[in-house]
Amino acid sequence: MSKQLENLTSKFEALRAKGIGQILLEGRAVFALVIIILIFASLSPNYLTVDNVLIMTKHVAINGLLAIGMLLVILKGGIDLSVGSIVALSGVVAGFLMRGVEIPGTDVVAYMPLWAVVLVALGVGSLAGYINGVLVTRFNVAPFIATLGMLYIARGTALLISDGKTFPKLQGDPELGNTGFRILGQDTFLGVAPGVWFMVLVAIFTSILLTRTAFGRRLYAVGGNERAAALGGVQVDKIKRTVYMFSGFTAGLTGIVLASELTAATPQTGETFELNAIAAVVIGGAALSGGRGTIRGTILGAFVIGFLADGLVIIGVSEFWKMVIKGAVIILAVAIDQAQQRTKVSKKKTEKTLKSPKPPEMSNGKIPFDRHK
User: 48-328 has which fold?
Assistant: First the structure.
């Protein structure tokens, strides 16, 4: 009992030492989410109903899945602008396979089982992410340029596969053995949408990966100081390729879930999704320069973006104003992050100054010295 009391006391002392300002900075995602909920709950009686919260959480899951993959890329100091297009490509591939594939030279149309469709779509997303990693590591293409190019390639490929059209009615046919697609996005388990469960499972897996494995420690090391990590024996290029492939995987999974929710796959899906994912990661406290960020903060950031967007819709705010407000929130989050970093740097400089040895006292304006040296 006394040990628990000591732990609580030490935590309280640590919080008091930080000060109110520092606590608000570090917990900004939590405080922002609480403020958003309180404001919209007061403006609309329907905002905090069980049904609406479940719907909003379902929307959050789409951005949350993408943000988890984006977090790993940002932790290593990179960026991935292609995830929205990979969402569209994976969804279109799934829709194309669910509609049946005509075997060349015959009149036979082959229908793949659901598990095969999912594997192929996830493979397409992972492959696109891996290509991003190869471009960054082997060809030294800047992450911004490499993923911007993949943004157009993936979107263009989705348009080519679908001929610019939508693949509707993806529920399948029992006689063809390709049913069950709705399980991935429409059916619920314990009243919660599948997308939310996918987000939870991926978040738990990634959190363990970052905090309990050597890969996580190496990833933070690469983001903190890539050269030092390389000198320490870390395979930097392998880490980079892995995180980009994981980002592509989460984008592929998002595309499948979204196509299942809509029971249709369209090549226009996922536009600006990459910006929402980056916003969630930044609001969650990750540094765009790399080396700092957590899964918990990223999920909270996704909830801030999702609950804010849905709240604005519920109270009838124009779509144009919604974009303005979202942009202002992102800028504010980055500005607060920069202020936090300046505070930390200033604090370290002050501590270093206080710890440095004092100069020898002067006597008659002269610095004393040892004549025997």
Answer: ABC transporter involved in vitamin B12 uptake, BtuC (1.10.3470)
